[in-house]
Known about the structure:
The chain has 2 domains: 26-140 and 266-272, Sandwich (Immunoglobulin-like); 142-264, Immunoglobulin-like (Sandwich). 7% of the residues lie in helices and 57% in strands. It contains 3 helices and 15 strands. The strands form 3 sheets. Strands 4, 5, 7, 9, 12, 13 and 15 form a 7-stranded antiparallel β-sheet that branches. Strands 1-2-3-6 form a 4-stranded antiparallel β-sheet. The chain has a 4-stranded antiparallel β-sheet with strand order 8-10-11-14, with no helix packed on it. The radius of gyration is 29 Å and the shape is elongated.
Amino acid sequence: MSKRAPTPARPVTAARPTPPRSGPPSQLQAWVKAARPVAGYHGEHVAFALSSLTLTRERAGDRTLLRLTGRGTRAFPDGGFELSSVYAILIGADGAPIIRRGHDSGRQTLLGPHTTWAHELYDEQLASAAALVYEIETRVDVRRPILAGALAAITLDADDRRPWPLALTSAPVDPLLRLSLGTNFNRGELEVWLAGEATGPHDGHRNELELDLLDASGAVIASRAMTLSIGPSGLAFNDYCLRLEKPVARAVASLVVRGRSEVRAIARVGPFTIPA
């Protein structure tokens, strides 16, 4: 009777290391560490500012109504303003999200001298929450002057493109848009190169711009409509040309840019601790 050949020993392999688990987003963990009571809060955002806040709890059937009141001011009191939505984001002690709940549309929701909004939440959600952040979406529609500058005298008979030096005389700080432009003159045309940057988070940022060329007396002698739409990256470019006859080009002394901005701005207010 023949003997079976011995079974070869299996090679010993090292145990594979357990891959690290992905934890909660670091920003949420930072919110938990930074959470403070609402008392004494003052925050300035793209479209508004908030201060003198109070956070209270009320019973609402089998839920708790978390109500915030305070004082708000709008960055553009003469422009269009709409408070679109207010979300309450609850974060647990481990940095994990508990809920993101929209405001109670059946109750008053205002942002102004008498700011108020409310959210209905379950007691279990509030009990396990270590931080509260409000995510606020506003829509603004504003018209205003953006910048002005003097254009230097240049030779108009050159056949090649050459810079048309611009010295800014007015460029006020704008809460919605940082705009810069470059100017060239090329064979009878003014070339305008635009770069625009959003000043904060948004979900839509459209700018309609009006460029006026002025003579030495300040009279408008040529105009050009322009647009600049800024995407999620926060930065956008565009370029335009304006045909100038020589008599007009010789008379140009300065320019003015005015703009209308329609922005859906997003602001996060907090993080706050939740009163017992």
